[in-house]
Design brief:
By secondary structure, the protein is α+β, with helices and mostly antiparallel strands. It has a single domain, classed as Double Stranded RNA Binding Domain, CATH 3.30.160. Helices cover 42% and strands 18% of the residues. Strands 1-2-3 form a three-stranded antiparallel β-sheet, covered by helices on one side. β1 and β2 form a beta hairpin. The chain is globular and about 35 Å long.
Length: 88
C-alpha cells in the first residue's frame, strides 16, 4: 500500500470525522486492501471486503461525515485496523 492510500485510510478513522476525503482515493485505497467494488443502480457503489458488504452513493466528489462514519464502521467490522495493519 502506498503512502497516499495509508493516509486516506487513517483519515477515515480520525476524530473529529472529516468531510473532505476524496472519494476516488478512498475507492483506490479500498481496492488496495482487497475490497471488490462494483456499481449498483442509481449511483450506488457496492463494496465487499472479508465477507462484509457496504453500499454508498457515488454521486459526489467527497464523502460526507455520515458516509465516513458508516465506512469506518464497515471497515472495523471487516477487521481492518489502520494502526495495526497499515501504520504510517
Amino acid at each position: 500500500m502506498n503512502h497516499k492510500h495509508r493516509v486516506a485510510l487513517h483519515a477515515l478513522f480520525t476524530h473529529p470525522v472529516s468531510n473532505n476525503i476524496d472519494l476516488r482515493i478512498v475507492k483506490s485505497t479500498l481496492e488496495d486492501i482487497g475490497a471488490e467494488i462494483s456499481h449498483g443502480g442509481h449511483g450506488q457503489l457496492i463494496v465487499k471486503l472479508n465477507g462484509h458488504t457496504h453500499g454508498f452513493h457515488d454521486s459526489h466528489r467527497h464523502l460526507t461525515k455520515d458516509e465516513v462514519a458508516e465506512l469506518r464502521k464497515f471497515l472495523t467490522l471487516a477487521g481492518i485496523d489502520p494502526e495495526r495493519d497499515y501504520p504510517l
